[in-house]
C-alpha cells in the first residue's frame, strides 16, 4: 500500500514509482488496513523534491530492454491458487536480488566491503484493479511541457518545483553534505572516509524496475538496484521515500475508482491535507494515474499535465453582501454580436418566476449570494457554476442558481454545474435533479435537466459507495483528505533489502519470519493463461532460463509447503532495464502512457482479484532453485 | 489534528505552523480518531517547498508586538467547564476574523469585489501536552546555519532543499503561472484579469498568528490574514497545506512523548514513509518540536538543526559473509598512544569466554555478523553499536556484540548501544539487560550493565506504552511510520475562512451547523488562574477592549445555551502580529525556542487535559458582543 514520490537524482529514472498494489486476503492486516490495494503511480522522473542532485556520470543512452517479451501459445495451468506470502501487508517483506561483481576485501576507508551489491524494493500484498474508460468530458492530459521529447537521465532544474539546492557535478553528496556528515560522525572517523564519500557517483548503478502503472503482487520486486555496495545503500531511503507514497496514492485512487464505477467523474482536491506542496503534487499526479479524472491542484496541471478542474469557493459567495453593483452588468449573447443584455436585471426577473415555481418568497434567496453568482456569470458566462450551500440550498442557493442559469440560458449560455458541500449529499442531489427537471419542463430549457451535480465534504469509501449507488443523481465527486492521506492505511510497507554481494546471495533471517528476505539476484515473470488472464508471478534466480510458454513449470508458492505445476500460455518478464551503469536505457513513459498502463493492467485482473474486501488471492511463487536456496540459507543460519 | 508544513513565500514568516492541538472529549470523532492532540511545529520560515516565491515588497522591519501581555492579580473563576465547540475534530470549524478597509465596488477584472478582507485558519480540538526535560545525553540542537541572525521576510534559496522554481520579483504568480491559468480558464476570460493576476503582490497582507509551539484549542484562530481579498484568497490552500501537517505531526509526537514518559529517548525514523523528502523534512522538524529527541533524517539535521541519531543497518551486517579480512585490524587504545592491538584476534578470544558464559558453542554465532561488527568497531571505536537480530539475537547477535564490546573495553572503549528490530522487544530487552549484568559482573566491566538498548519495529501507541512500562529495560525507541503518517488520524482538519470584508463581518451558514463560521475580525485571549493554570480561551471582536485581569467577564462557551462568568488572574493575548502590510515585524523564533515553548505550553496544562483518551474539556468562549453578532447573523440568514 504505498506509492512512489519524487526525489534524489539517482531515482529520477526509476520507473516503478507507482505500482498497483494489493494486500493479501486472509492474512493479518496492519493497523486500520481494510484491504487497500496498490496502484502504480508515475515514474520517478516526474518527481522533483528535496536535494535533487545531478550525478556527473548519469548520461542518457539507448540500450536494449531488460528482457524480451515471451508470448507463446495457450496452455492449461494447475493450481493451488492459495496465497503464500511470508509477510503481511503494510510491513516489509522479502525483496529480490540482482547481479554484482567485485570481491569483498579492500582497504576502503568505509567499514563496508567494497563489493558490488544488489538491493531490491519490494512489498507485501496482492494486486487489484479497475478500469476507467476515457470519458468524453475529460480534458485530455496536457503535454508535459517540462519534459523533453527524450527524457534526461537526471532531473532538470526547471522540471521540478523544487530545484536542486546546491547541485554538485561531482556526485550524489555535495561538499556541504559531507561536511555535515563529518560534523555528526565521531570525531575520530578516518578523514579518508569523507574523501571517499565526496568521490561517490552513480556511474556504477544499474536499475531494473516494473514500469509505472504495473500491477505489483507481494514479494515481487518493484525495483532492483545493482552497483557499488555503499552507493546502493545510500539509495535506500530516497528510493523508499519515492516509491512508497506514489504507489499508495495510486492504489488508493484505484480503490476509489472501483467503488465509484466508471461513470462518476472523480476530482482530487486534497492539496491542503498533503504533507506539504510536494506531497500534494505527488498525490495529484498519482491519483490521476490511479483512475481519478482531474485535480484541483493547478501546479499538477502546470508541471505534470494532470487535467485540472474545480468549482468556486464559499468565500467567493460570502465576500458579496448584496449591496455591490457590477460596473458593467451587460452581457452579449453566446452566439455572437447580438444586443447586450443587463444580466443582473434579467436575473431578478427570472428569480420571481423561479420563486413562484418553488413556492418561495422572492426575498428569501440571499441577495449577496445572487450578486456573487451574477459576478461569476459575467466573468465566466460559458462556465457558470453554482455553489449552493453557503446559506441554504433550497431557500437560497438553488433559486439563485436557477435565476442566473435561466438568464444566461436566454442568452444562449448553459450553466456547467452546481456543487454541494454539506448535508446529505445524495438526497439533496435527488431533490435538485427533480427541480432541474420540472424547471426544464416548465421553462422549456431541456439542457437544465442534465446540469452536472458535484458533491464534496469529506467523502470516504463508504460515502462514495452511497453516492455511486444505482439511481444516484450525483455526477461529479470531489475527494480530498480521503484520497491524499489514505486514512484506511496511511502507509505502504515497501522495503529495500540487500540480496546479493559480490555475486553471493545474502539473506536476513531475524527473529521474525515475516522480516526474512528472499536471497539472491532474481528475475520475475508473470504467467498468463490462454485468454490473457493472470495465473501467477514467478520469481527465480537471475541465471535460470526464463519460463517458456506452453511448458510445464514446477514452482513453490510463497510460504507453501508443497510445490505445484503451472503451464502458462504466455510469459511476460516483469522487470525492465532502465538504467545501466548509470546510463538511462530507454525513454521514460509519459504520464498518459503510465495511466493507460495502469488502467489496462487493472482490466486484466479477474473480478475476484478486484474485490475491495477479501480479494481472491493472487499467487507469487518461487522457482525450484530459488526455493532450494532459501531452504539452504535458512537451514544454515544464512551461512 | 494537523500541523503546518512549508511553502509559498508569503507563508514563510507565518509562525503558527505547528500548534499543539487536541480534539474534544465527548464529541464525535472523525474516522479513526481516538483522540489525537495537536502540538505546534515550526514556524513556516523553516519550510521550503514547491513554488517558493519572493514577493518584491516583503521587506523586514521592526514593529511592535500585536498586543501587550496582561498579567494581573489572582482571582477566582466560574465554570461551567463543558466543551462548547461547534465542530467536530478532524473537520473544519469556525475560524475567526480580522480587519479590512476598501469599499466593495470596483471595475476589477476579477469577479471578486476589490475589498480588503480577513480570513483565518482554525481548527477543532482541545489541547494536551507533556513536558520533555532536556536529557543529558542529547546532542544539543545545532545552530541553524542556513538561517541568518535576523530572519529574512522571505525564504532564501539556500535555506530550503527546494529552491524557487522560477522566482519572480514581481509577485506570487510568475508569468508562466498566469500563462498556465489562462490556458485552463474559459477562452473568453477577460484578458485584463490576467494582467491583474500578474500585478498581484503581498504588500498589502497583514498576518497575526499563534507563535509556533503554542497550544491551540478548537475555534481559536491559528492564523489571521488580512489584505486585498483576492490575495488573501490565493493564500488559502498554501497556508492550509503548511499549517496542517506540521501541527499534526507535532501533536502526534507530543502524544507519543506523553506515552513514553520523560525518560525514554525517542528517535524519529520515518523518512521512508513520508510523502516525499519534503514531507519527511517537515516530519523530522516538527516531531522534534513535539517532543522527540532526534531524527535519523540527516537533511533535517543539516537544514533545520534537528539533532540526528541512528544505529546501523541489517544490510551492513549481511554484506559480510565472514570471509573478509580487514586490511588493518590493529586498533590503538582509547586513552592514547599505547600499543595497538589486533582487534579481530582479540574478539575471537573474547568470543570463547562469552560463549562459555552463555552456554553456546563457539561456532554458533554468525561469523559474517561478527566480522561486520569488527569492521564497524574499527571504523568507529568510540561509537560501537550492535544490531542484534540479523540472524538470531541469543545465538548470534548478542554473543558477537559482547565479544566485540569486551575486546573494545579492553582498549578503553565503551560500546554505545544495541538495537533490536524484530520479535518481542520488551522481553528481549529484559533478557539482554540480564545478560549484560551477569557479563558485567563476570568480567568486571561495570559500564556494560547500562549500555542503552534501542528498539524499533513498527512501534505504535500501544506498543510504546508497553515498552515504556515500569521496569522496562528499553532506553531508546525508534518510531517511523507511526509518527510520520499519524495512522490514528492522518489529517488535521484546519480550515481557512473569510470572516470580514470591507470591515463587515461575513458568516457561512450552510446546511451543516458544524461548518458554520465565526464571523468578524476577532481577538483571542487566554485567561489564567492565580496559579498560572489555564481557565479558558475567549474570542471577542477586535474592537472590544481586552479582558482585564481581576475583573469578572461574562462569556458564552461555544455552543452552550447559557453564559457564564470568569475572573482571570492573568490574561494573555494569543495572536501576535508577525507581518504588517507585507513587512515582517519581528524575528522568527529558532527551532529550539519553538520547541521550548511547546514543551512549556504542554506543562501548563492540567493532567486531566493531557489525558490521551477522553481528555477533560478545555473551554473556548465567545464574548457577549461576538455571541450577539453570531446570533444576529444566524437569525438573519447571514443577512
Task: Write up this protein.
The structure is a homodimer of 639-residue chains. The first copy, chain A, has 639 residues and is an alpha/beta fold. The first copy, chain A, is built from 16 helices and 24 strands. Chain A has helices at residues 175-184, 191-198, 229-234, 236-260, 277-290, 298-304, 314-318, 343-358, 367-379, 393-410, 425-443, 461-467, 481-484, 591-604, 607-610, 624-635, and strands at 20-21, 70-71, 116-122, 206-209, 215-216, 223-228, 265-268, 294-295, 330-331, 341-342, 385-387, 417-420, 453-455, 476-479, 495-501, 504-505, 522-528, 534-541, 553-557, 564-566, 570-573, 576-580, 583-584, 619-623. In chain A, the strands form five sheets. In chain A, strands 2-21-17-18-24-19-20 form a seven-stranded mixed sheet. Chain A has a seven-stranded antiparallel sheet with strand order 16-15-3-6-4-22-23. In chain A, strands 8-7-14-13-12-11 form a six-stranded parallel sheet. In chain A, helix 4 crosses helix 5, helix 5 packs across helix 14 and helix 8 crosses helix 10. In chain A, 62% of the residues are buried. The interface between A and B is large, with 137 and 138 residues.
Query: What spatial form of chain A do the alpha-carbon principal axes imply?
Result: elongated
Main sheet of chain A, how many strands, which sense, barrel?
7 strands, mixed
β content of chain A, as a range?
A: 5-15%
Q: How many strand units of chain A?
A: 24
Count of runs of 4 or more consecutive helical residues of chain A? 16
* Structural category of chain A: alpha/beta
Q: What oligomeric state do the depicted chains represent?
A: homodimer
Assign a percent range to the helix content of chain A: 25-40%
Q: How many angstroms does the end-to-end distance of chain A come to?
A: 33 Å
> Biggest interface and which pair forms it?
A-B, 137 and 138 residues
Quote the average pLDDT of chain A: 77
Strand numbers in spatial order across the main sheet of chain A: 2-21-17-18-24-19-20
Amino acid at each position: 500500500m504505498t506509492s512512489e514520490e519524487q526525489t534524489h537524482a539517482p531515482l529520477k529514472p526509476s520507473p516503478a514509482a507507482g505500482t498497483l498494489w494489493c494486500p493479501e486476503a486472509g492474512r493479518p492486516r496492519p493497523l486500520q488496513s481494510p484491504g487497500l490495494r496498490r496502484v502504480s503511480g508515475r515514474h520517478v522522473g516526474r518527481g522533483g523534491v528535496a536535494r535533487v542532485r545531478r550525478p556527473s556520470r548519469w548520461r542518457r543512452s539507448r540500450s536494449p530492454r531488460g528482457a524480451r517479451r515471451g508470448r507463446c501459445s495457450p496452455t492449461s495451468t494447475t493450481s493451488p491458487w492459495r496465497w503464500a506470502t511470508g509477510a503481511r501487508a503494510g510491513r516489509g517483506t522479502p525483496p529480490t536480488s540482482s547481479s554484482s561483481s567485485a570481491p569483498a576485501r579492500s582497504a576502503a576507508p568505509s567499514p563496508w566491503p567494497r563489493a558490488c551489491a544488489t538491493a531490491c524494493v519490494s512489498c507485501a500484498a496482492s494486486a487489484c484493479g479497475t478500469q476507467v474508460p476515457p470519458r468524453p468530458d475529460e480534458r485530455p492530459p496536457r503535454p508535459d511541457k517540462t519534459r523533453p521529447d527524450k527524457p534526461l537521465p537526471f532531473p532538470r532544474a526547471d522540471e521540478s518545483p523544487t530545484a536542486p539546492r546546491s547541485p554538485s557535478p561531482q556526485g550524489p553528496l555535495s561538499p556541504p553534505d559531507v561536511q555535515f556528515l563529518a560534523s555528526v560522525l565521531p570525531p575520530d572517523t578516518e578523514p579518508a572516509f569523507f574523501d571517499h564519500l565526496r568521490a561517490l557517483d552513480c556511474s556504477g548503478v544499474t536499475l531494473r524496475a516494473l514500469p509505472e502503472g504495473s500491477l505489483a503482487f507481494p514479494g515481487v520486486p518493484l525495483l532492483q538496484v545493482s552497483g557499488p555496495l555503499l552507493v546502493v545503500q545510500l539509495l535506500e531511503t530516497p528510493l523508499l521515500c519515492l516509491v512508497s507514497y506514489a504507489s499508495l496514492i495510486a492504489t488508493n485512487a484505484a480503490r476509489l475508482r472501483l467503488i465509484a464505477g466508471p461513470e462518476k467523474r472523480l476530482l482530487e482536491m486534497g492539496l491542503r491535507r498533503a504533507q506539504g506542496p510536494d506531497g500534494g503534487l505527488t498525490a495529484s499526479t498519482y491519483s490521476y494515474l490511479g483512475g481519478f479524472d482531474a485535480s484541483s491542484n493547478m501546479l499538477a496541471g502546470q508541471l505534470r499535465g494532470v487535467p485540472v478542474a474545480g468549482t468556486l469557493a464559499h468565500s467567493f459567495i460570502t465576500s458579496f453582501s448584496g449591496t455591490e453593483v457590477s460596473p458593467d452588468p451587460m452581457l452579449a449573447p453566446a452566439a455572437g454580436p447580438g444586443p447586450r443584455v443587463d444580466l443582473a436585471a434579467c436575473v431578478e426577473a427570472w428569480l420571481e418566476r423561479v420563486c413562484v415555481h418553488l413556492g418561495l418568497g422572492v426575498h428569501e434567496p440571499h441577495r449577496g449570494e445572487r450578486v456573487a453568482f451574477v459576478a461569476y456569470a459575467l466573468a465566466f458566462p460559458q462556465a457558470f457554476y453554482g455553489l449552493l450551500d453557503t446559506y441554504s440550498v433550497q431557500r437560497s442557493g438553488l433559486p439563485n442558481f436557477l435565476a442566473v442559469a435561466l438568464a444566461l440560458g436566454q442568452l444562449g449560455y448553459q450553466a456547467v454545474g452546481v456543487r454541494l458541500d454539506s448535508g446529505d449529499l445524495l438526497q439533496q442531489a435527488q431533490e435538485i435533479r427533480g427541480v432541474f427537471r420540472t424547471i426544464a419542463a416548465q421553462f422549456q430549457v431541456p439542457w437544465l435537466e442534465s446540469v452536472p451535480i458535484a458533491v464534496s465534504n469529506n467523502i470516504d469509501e463508504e460515502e462514495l459507495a452511497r453516492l455511486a449507488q444505482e439511481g444516484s443523481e450525483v455526477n461529479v465527486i470531489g475527494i480530498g483528505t480521503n484520497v491524499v492521506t489514505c486514512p484506511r492505511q496511511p502507509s505502504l510497507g515497501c522495503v529495500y533489502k540487500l540480496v546479493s554481494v559480490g555475486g553471493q546471495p545474502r539473506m536476513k533471517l531475524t527473529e521474525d519470519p515475516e522480516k526474512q528476505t528472499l536471497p539472491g539476484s532474481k528475475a520475475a515473470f508473470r504467467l498468463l493463461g490462454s485468454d490473457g488472464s493472470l495465473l501467477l508471478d514467478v520469481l527465480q534466480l537471475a541465471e535460470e532460463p526464463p519460463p517458456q510458454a506452453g511448458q510445464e513449470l514446477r514452482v513453490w508458492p510463497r510460504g507453501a509447503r508443497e510445490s505445484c505445476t503451472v503451464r502458462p500460455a504466455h510469459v511476460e518478464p516483469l522487470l525492465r532495464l532502465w538504467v545501466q551503469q548509470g546510463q538511462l536505457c530507454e525513454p521514460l513513459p509519459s504520464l498518459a502512457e503510465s495511466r493507460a498502463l495502469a488502467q489496462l493492467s487493472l482490466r486484466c485482473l479477474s473480478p475476484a482479484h478486484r474485490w475491495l474486501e477479501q480479494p481472491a488471492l493472487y499467487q507469487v511463487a518461487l522457482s525450484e532453485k530459488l526455493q532450494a536456496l532459501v531452504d539452504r540459507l535458512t537451514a544454515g543460519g544464512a551461512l
